[in-house]
Amino acid sequence: MTSNQDIIQRDLQSVWHPCTQMKDHEKLPLIPFKSGKGVWLHDFDGNKYIDAVSSWWVNLFGHCNPRINDAIRHQIDTLEHAMLAGFTHEPVVSLSERLIKATPPGLDKCFYADNGSSAIEVALKMSYHYWKNVGAPGKKNFVNISNSYHGETLGALALGDVALYRDTYAPLLMDVLTVPGPDAFNREEGETWKDYAIRQFAHMEAMLEKHHDEVCAVVIEPLVQCAGNMRMYDPIYLTMLREACDRYNVHLIADEIAVGFGRTGTMFACEQADITPDFMTLSKGLTAGYLPLSVTLTSNHIYNAFYDDYETLKAFLHSHSYTGNAIGCAVAEATLDIFEQDNVIVENRRLAQVMGDSVAHLADHPNVGDIRQHGMILAIELVKNRKTRELFPWQERRGIRVYQHALSQQALLRPLANVVYFMPPYVITEDEIKHLAQVATDGIHKAVQD
Ligand SMILES: *Cc1c(COP(=O)(O)O)cnc(C)c1O
Question: For labelling alongside 386, which of 17, 141, 407, 449 has CA 20 to 30 A away?
Answer without folding.
Answer: 407
